[in-house]
């Protein structure tokens, strides 16, 4: 790993203007992992300056999703709307130093300027009309107009940084116009400083919070040179930047044609918390997300501890990654197989509680813990989520109704006497896997049947399905009376 500035301080700074999906949360996962890998600090900052679109519901999804995934922050959450006095203080300091200036160009004048520039095939940009320069005469200040405040961007030269994902990026200062860093103050306000803008607030936050590494989506690349110039004007060295490629997803339009688009709510993305409700394990989501843009050799499945141990910025991918639901399910299955059975038992209890299902005494907390843990151990290999695991275990919680046609095909007149004989044997058999296996063996020998001829109808009658783990193991985790009663319905 290359050396890093210490102590490492990273941040995740979402805007609560819509629910947070997997593409968004990846921009939290990497800075969290980098901070943990370097014994650093991970900061959560809520960029809620868009008051019309921001909502508490969106904030709640961010906080709930991060808590569920175990992406715990060390400082914060900080809310930009609660820091407005600090931003205005820095604006005033910059005004006093001549780093920013008032601009009285109206929106209509700015639109007309852009139209003229586009007609001349020039890049539309503010032309510096109100920028003070030595020997320059500014236009007369219009009466009763509150100005915007613009940053005096350096003229000539370039902004250069070594992006940890994209490599060297160089932007000419002549491509950057003077950024508006504060909107006009209210007409009835005595203040000259209005509402600070997003790009400016970000700079002040990163400066005040001592951010050493900014790891964020590449939709922010165009903001970076402006933010670097403001930071340097404030006497600060910029952090290390890593701009992550977009997460893409496949969608199908109304004509059945497939398209690859940026992951978004409009293109079918789900809130992070929905994956929790669907029963995915948090470690599985972390594993899958980690591989959407980062790699450690050919390792596909790894623990959270391994991810933190291995993570660095040198192996971030440069190409956009595509979300693949089938791959996510495969990763989830691998994590289910190795998950702690007691953890799964607790999650399955939550799934049944969410369904309003009361567990039978045999499975209730306390005395039933061991049996529920054993059930999870037996069935987890067949599942990708705890919802699916709860579906499997439903036959131990409530009565079953076997598929009529399938039962009729399997429970033939030749097999019915064997099922009845098995039910009788099970009333006195030792109630464990070995005892049930012996009862099955004895019944097969007595009636001259092969195991599938008896096991399939037994599964259908007791479990409501024809496929389960070994029939003796599945039956042993039922109460004896339940098994015997269901077999006697044959």
Automatic annotation (TrEMBL):
Classification via SUPFAM superfamilies: An anticodon-binding domain of class I aminoacyl-tRNA synthetases (SSF48163), Nucleotidylyl transferase (SSF52374)
- What are the residue boundaries of the Glutamyl/glutaminyl-tRNA synthetase class Ib catalytic domain, all occurrences included? 8-330
EC numbers on record: 6.1.1.17
- GO-annotated molecular function: ATP binding; glutamate-tRNA ligase activity; tRNA binding; zinc ion binding
- GO biological process entries: glutamyl-tRNA aminoacylation
Q: What residue stretches are annotated with the Aminoacyl-tRNA synthetase class I anticodon-binding domain? A: 365-490
Q: Which UniProt keywords apply?
A: Aminoacyl-tRNA synthetase, ATP-binding, Cytoplasm, Ligase, Nucleotide-binding, Protein biosynthesis
Name the reaction it catalyses.
tRNA(Glu) + L-glutamate + ATP = L-glutamyl-tRNA(Glu) + AMP + diphosphate
**A Pfam short name:** Anticodon_2
What Gene Ontology terms describe where this protein resides (cellular component)?
cytosol
Q: Which Gene3D superfamilies does this one have? A: 1.10.10.350, HUPs
Q: Which residues bind ATP?
A: 265
Q: Where does the UniProt annotation locate this protein?
A: Cytoplasm
- CDD domains xrefs: GluRS_core
UniProt subunit comment: Monomer.
The entry sums up its family as follows:
Belongs to the class-I aminoacyl-tRNA synthetase family. Glutamate--tRNA ligase type 1 subfamily.
* UniProt protein name: Glutamate--tRNA ligase
Q: Which organism encodes this protein?
A: Aquabacterium commune
Q: Which gene encodes it?
A: gltX
